[in-house]
Each structure stands twice: as structure tokens, then as C-alpha cells.
Amino acid sequence: MSEIITVGLDLAKNVFQVHGADGAGRAVLRKKLRRDQVLAFFGDLPPCIVAMEACGGAHFWGREIGKLGHEVRLIPPAYVKPFVKRQKNDAADAEAICEAAMRPTMRFVPVKSEETQGAAMVFRIRELLIRQRTQAINALRGHLGEFGQIAPQGTANAARLIAIVEGPDSGLPVDAIAALKVLVAALTHLEAEIGKLDAEIFRRAKENEVARRLMTVPGIGPLIATALAVLAPPPETFRKGRDFAAWLGLTPRQHSTGGKQRLGATTRMGERSLRRLLIIGANSVIIKRHGHAAARPGTWLGGMLMRKPPMLVRVALANKMARIVWALMARGGVYQSPAAAA
């Protein structure tokens, strides 16, 4: 058997598929492995390139296989799909992963450490609790609407809904009050847990040197700064700020041909949470534009607000903020407004 240079590993819960290729790309190994056989198999294999699709469990396997002396490469699933030949099965997927890993222009995902994954978990859990809080508020508003009790939308008005349920003269049926109090208790618990996570995020923002520097950018507070410091890949992963903005999905989608540039909506690729947070941060700058020097008449943002639709300006500003973030993370320093820099 020829020497194995590249291995494509198709991950699963229990049954893994391995595809090995030599230096010329010829298949020299096809094998199925049970979960408890994976590390023993790669422990007996000479050091080589092991490629996997980037997913939730890929970072764990990347760390473990990397400890055995192999070079681990994680590939975004969208970049593997074009290499799948006709039929979709585990063997074809492993072969496609192996072939994609050998491409000289392929882009890879850095393997995350346990500390990085643990630090990112607070944001994932916070997002989940916020979605559950929104569901509880919407359910509470909808049920109260059945009895003619109306309150404006928004999290800030949840207290009015709770006051209606707990009020002695609400006029609600006794059975309905007992059921609605279950929603009120769940909503109160969610608010308390979200508050604890917010306090933890603010604490991390004060302790993290990168987050403190990012908070000097207008529109970036403790939450966004900490999320960028934890969830964003290392700045050296990207050649320039535009590449980072493109990874976030804040650049237009291209469908150009024949020398004609055709740009569409944003790609919405990359890290969804960071993209959403940057757009929210850009929106805060626009809402408070009268207090920001960067939004005064005659500035880039001031001109954009006069010429372009509001949502387009928000995304454009988020794109600019992403480039500034990459520059600060890659080169150090703090943000200086164009007027101050001049």
C-alpha cells in the first residue's frame, strides 16, 4: 500500500468513514470506524494531513487527533460539497473531504481550544434564553389579547403584561390567571438568568485587553467587544479587513460575468451572531447620530444617511466597523476618529 499523505474523515455520532490518499491523490484506504476506534486508528497511522468538515464536534476531534502528531485541517462544509460525485453517502463525503483538503487554494477553519469554546458558550446560552424570553412574552401578550388586554410590543413592555396578570382588577378568569402565572414565573426566571449572563460578560469585557480596545469604537459596547474577542478567528486568518467583513457576511453577493459587475444583497455567510451584533451596534450609532462626531453633516456617515435607505446605511456602517475591528485586533492600538487622527 502506498504511503498515506491525506486522510478525509467524515464525522458522525457512532460510525465514521475514512478515506486515505497518496501524494498523487489516488485512493489507498477506505475504512469504517466505530467511535471508540477512531483515536486508536490514527494513533497507529504515520503523521499525515487529516481533514474534516467544520462542525460542532470537529474541534474536539481536531484537538485529539492533533495530539497524535497529525496536521488537522477543518474545511467549511460549503467548500466540500462541490467535490461530492453524484451519490451522497459517507464514503463519497470522506472522499470529497480528502480531495478538497489537497487543493492549494482551499480555505480552512482554525481548530478552537477548549478555553475558546467554553468562553463562547455564554453567548450561545444567552441567545437561547433571549429567544425563550421572546416566546414567553409573545405568548403572554397573545393570551391576554384574547380577553381584550392589549400592551405594546417589545421587551420593555413585559412589565405591563405581568402587571395585568397580577393585578386584582384585571377581570381575567380565575383559571386563566393560574395558567398565565406559569408564563410570568418562567419570564421572571429567564430575566434573572439573562441578567447573570450579562454581568458575566461585562466582567470579562473589563478583564480582556482586546475587548477594552474594541470598546473605543463607536457602537461597540461590552457585549459586542467580548463576543468579537471570543468568537472571531485570529486576525492573522485574514489578509485584510475586507476579508474579515466578507467572512461575517457583510459584503454584497456577486453575480458578475462578462466584465459587468452585478452586486446583490449581503451574503449572510460566516458567524451569524457577530454579524447581527455589529448591525445592532451600527444601529445604535445611527439612532444617537446627533451625539456622534462621525455622523455629523459632511462626514461619510452623514452623507450616507442623506442619500441611502436606513437599513443599507446600517449594514454599510457594520461593514466599516468590522474592518476597524480587524485593524485593531491585528495591529493593536485604540480607535481614533478621522477628525482626531487628522
Which short descriptors sum up this protein?
342 residues, alpha/beta, two-stranded antiparallel ribbon, 3 domains, single chain, Transposase_20, Nucleotidyltransferase, domain 5, globular, five-stranded mixed β-sheet
Overall SS class = alpha/beta
Q: How do the strands of the widest beta sheet line up side by side? A: 3-2-1-4-5
Q: Main beta sheet, described?
A: 5 strands, mixed
Tell me the overall shape.
globular
Describe the structure.
- This protein is of the alpha/beta class and 342 residues long.
- The chain folds into three domains: 6-101, YqgF/RNase H-like domain (Nucleotidyltransferase, domain 5), CATH 3.30.420; 114-207; 210-255 and 262-341, no CATH class.
- The protein contains 14 helices and seven strands.
- It has helices at residues 38-44, 58-66, 77-80, 90-101, 114-145, 158-166, 174-207, 209-214, 222-231, 241-247, 272-287, 300-307, 310-331, 338-341; strands at 6-10, 15-21, 27-34, 49-53, 71-75, 252-254, 263-266.
- Strands 3-2-1-4-5 form a five-stranded mixed sheet. A two-stranded antiparallel ribbon has the order 6-7.
- The chain is globular.
- The protein starts with 5 loop residues before the first strand and ends with a helix.
- The mean pLDDT is 90.
